[in-house]
């Protein structure tokens, strides 16, 4: 087998070609950034997936805004401000209500500015007005509009921002009413600020409740995932204990008996010694492989059951794993078991990640094991092709001999497909036109690489039959007809 080249790292670059990092912003701007981010409109996580439910609410708010604009325009007419100013201040409140759906803080500023302009413009009208004077500086429509803006703002921004703008409204009201003042009016400043404070408290409470529920759901999800992970790890540890206590014991006994057996026979033949040595060697190899399996089962990464490492990283497990360099020993071992195997290698290995090498070895190993079980007496061709995208594997056996094949458990091909899929590759298996069976696989060097376009498929007119699949139930109809297969064909 060709020597596997090590993975080469990224070429060094000239430091002069790298762009100089941007200087960090001043500390005062870093402290201001969270507050600026908090003023952006936020949609509660509970409603992000239910956008269509917000449409009726938008329509209702727009109708309320129009009603407020018309009512406020009519109310401003009592102060003789002029048509232009009356319409401007009236529709400013309606526009603020609509704007609060997306930008609540600018909407608050617009509503407050409209109130200030209207209050200052109406001050001359209050001179000499008989008692009791009109409501000032907040009228009923302005209070309604500003309260709606506060409610939408409290539902969307952080609580500290809501109370900050509430303080801004209170200070502005005090300045207008205390410093500017009017001649004769009914003060609405204190009552309006009290209403706004109540609205902010209610909105902040609802926002906090929604955030608490969202965090609770997230925590429950994390808890459920951890519980499932712990259950899976416990089950895998239980399986590892059973394998260690049962399989490892029997394999150790087989190895010891194969080592002692030649000494129990007078003048054992060389052929008997070689067979017993092969049995002991295979038993020891099985014990080594079993230790690797136990290490994978006892690992704390259930997302990587085959020990392939993170996808695309080429991370190898802690214990040594078989690589493409060991395929020669695997093929020789299969030949010693009585199977004629011919290996063909095209191209050179291109520094595959450990996960790719391990999967390639396991796929060839499982395909040869299937040929031993299901096609005894056949000849097998193992083809390995290296190209820039990855490695192609093909294991084809001829028509089996008259020896009855052994049954399978039904998990071999499934394991091959899972291994390849975890690396972004694929595995196909189908009978050949001459009564044999072919297993083809492609494993990309990079998990992001696309599979080749000329992937092998099932020959037309042949039923897809896998060696490990159970026989079909009698009487079940299948689409199309398949040629009869002789007993022993995988």
TrEMBL record:
Keywords: ATP-binding, Kinase, Membrane, Nucleotide-binding, Phosphoprotein, Transferase, Transmembrane, Transmembrane helix, Two-component regulatory system. Residues 355-447 form the Histidine kinase/HSP90-like ATPase domain. Residues 10-19 have a biased composition (Basic and acidic residues). One of its GO terms (molecular function) is protein dimerization activity. It catalyses: ATP + protein L-histidine = ADP + protein N-phospho-L-histidine. It is an enzyme of class 2 (transferase). The chain crosses the membrane at residues 55-73, 135-154, 161-180, 186-206. InterPro entries: HATPase_C_sf, HATPase_dom, Sensor_HK_TwoCompSys, Sig_transdc_His_kin_sub3_dim/P. PANTHER family: NITRATE/NITRITE SENSOR PROTEIN NARX-RELATED (PTHR24421), NITRATE_NITRITE SENSOR PROTEIN NARQ (PTHR24421:SF10). This is histidine kinase. It comes from Streptomyces aurantiogriseus. The lineage of its organism: Bacteria, Bacillati, Actinomycetota, Actinomycetes, Kitasatosporales.
